[in-house]
Design goal:
Elements: H1 2-10, H2 12-21, E1 25-28, E2 32-33, E3 39-44, E4 53-58, E5 68-71, E6 78-82, E7 88-95, E8 104-110, E9 118-121, E10 125-126, E11 132-137, E12 146-151, E13 162-164, E14 171-175, E15 181-188, E16 197-203, E17 213-214, H3 216-235, H4 245-269, H5 273-282, H6 288-306, H7 313-332, H8 343-360, H9 373-376, H10 387-404, E18 410-411
Parallel strand pairs: 2-8, 10-16
Antiparallel strand pairs: 1-3, 3-6, 4-5, 4-7, 7-8, 9-11, 11-14, 12-13, 12-15, 15-16, 17-18
Helix pairs in contact: 2-10, 3-4, 3-6, 3-7, 3-10, 4-5, 7-8, 7-10
């Protein structure tokens, strides 16, 4: 862990700056809300003016237009309940002291479709009698929503081991340890027996029955290295056709980190690392388009090798790392350039950040203290050309810390 700590300490200033500069958040009770259900907005990090205000508006509408709004009344954090709205795409917006400059925003959807209900355990493989922790998201929030932990293959109405969620749409439940075998965590709504989400896990005396577990050091090394691969991928469009010496050297450096990351898990996926080593050597002879295509081909191949794994753990960290690295590279290209950056580039970076957020959400039960709002909070429209890059670097570093301190291990089972 020594080398990891050195890396983390070298970037601790970025984390401090990040937390001081931009901590405002607004969040609905769920990202997908039913029509005519009240919208409960939680907010935090506001300056505490009595005329700070929060609005709900149609997504894409002008910043000075709203459907409903309330003053915060002075508290820096709290909740505000809005009336219901019809189906559609909406946005929560936060403002300071009667101004019309949006300081923070969060999109959400109102629809009759079922939300992306998820269940995940904090491990894929447990020892016998080891406590089982189940994290759930996007439940309805009724007091009679419930979760069971039962043998895989048993009837959906199996009531041998279950608990209510106590009305919380998102949360964590603990279950007593089990005997050896294959099990499922299952989620249900409102005392019904239709399974809305399920997650398979194993209880085994041998914690790594089929090829290994990857824990803190290996996972953080893997994530950071895949961030390097994404950074090289994201840099290529900003290089001239005949890439600069500085650009090639920077890309070779971060791709070298990707080699170490792949070596940490290669007994699991069997990627031919010589392909990456060859690309690093040939990089000075390639055009920026050729380099982009070859890096992208390697990314797709690694993704295809991770796909057959039973656990989504490594795949989640892979996608998160690649897209965070790409977002950072794109933002870096705008340092000392006219700001705010072009809207087209903002869209590219936001798409990378959204993809990273969606995939890290699958790992979130293993990093429960990490706020996903950090992804959406990056101020891409800032008039300071350095600010977007520094914020992304802060998120990237916070992710490395969270992964390096996790109690979870990723399984290599197929």
């Amino acid at each position: 862990m020594l080398s990891l700590h050195k890396f983390a300490l070298s970037t601790i200033l970025s984390i401090i700056i990040y937390s001081m500069v931009y901590t405002q958040t607004v969040q609905p009770q769920r990202d997908l809300i039913k029509p005519f259900e009240k919208v409960v907005v939680s907010y935090s990090g506001f300056p505490g003016n009595t005329n700070d205000w929060i609005s709900i508006a149609k997504a894409g509408s002008k910043d000075d237009v709203s459907l409903a709004w309330y003053y915060t009344g002075g508290p820096q954090s709290g909740t505000i309940t809005f009336s219901s709205f019809e189906a559609g795409e909406y946005e929560i917006r936060g403002y300071y002291k009667n101004e019309y400059t949006v300081r923070v925003r969060k999109k959400f959807t109102i629809s009759d479709t079922d939300p992306d209900v998820r269940l995940v355990t904090n491990k894929d493989v447990y020892l016998p009698d080891e406590e089982i922790t189940v994290t759930y998201t996007n439940f309805m929030g009724t007091t009679s929503d419930w979760i069971s932990v039962v043998p895989q293959g048993s009837a959906d109405a199996d009531l041998s081991n279950w608990k209510f969620t106590d009305g919380k749409p998102n949360g964590t439940l603990s279950f007593k340890g089990l005997k050896e075998g294959k099990y499922e965590a299952r989620g249900y709504y409102n005392n019904q027996y239709k399974v809305m989400a399920r997650h398979v896990f194993t209880v085994n005396k041998t914690i790594s029955p089929q090829g290994g577990q990857f824990c803190r050091r290996a996972l953080s090394t893997f994530y950071a290295g895949m961030g390097g691969l994404g950074s090289a991928w994201g840099r290529t469009p900003h290089e001239p056709t005949n890439m600069t010496v500085e650009g090639v050297a920077a890309m070779q450096g971060v791709m070298g980190n990707a080699i170490a990351a792949l070596e940490a898990i290669n007994n699991c996926i069997g990627f031919d690392i010589n392909k990456l080593k060859s690309l690093i050597q040939r990089l000075p002879m390639l055009t920026n388009v050729q380099a982009e295509q070859e890096i992208q081909a390697i990314i797709k191949e690694i993704q295809s090798l991770l796909a057959p794994l039973k656990s989504d753990c490594l795949h989640s960290l892979f996608v998160t790392g690649v897209h965070m690295g790409a977002a950072q590279a794109h933002a870096s290209s705008r340092i000392c350039q006219p700001a705010p950056m072009p809207m087209a580039l903002q869209t590219v970076i936001r798409n990378h950040l959204n993809t990273a957020s969606d995939h890290f959400a699958r790992f979130l039960s293993c990093a429960p203290g990490f706020p996903l709002s950090q992804f959406s909070g990056v101020p891409l429209n800032s008039s300071n050309s350095v600010e977007p890059h520094n914020h992304i670097l802060g998120v990237h570093t916070s992710l490395i810390w969270s992964i390096s301190l996790t109690d979870c291990c990723c399984s290599c089972d197929r």
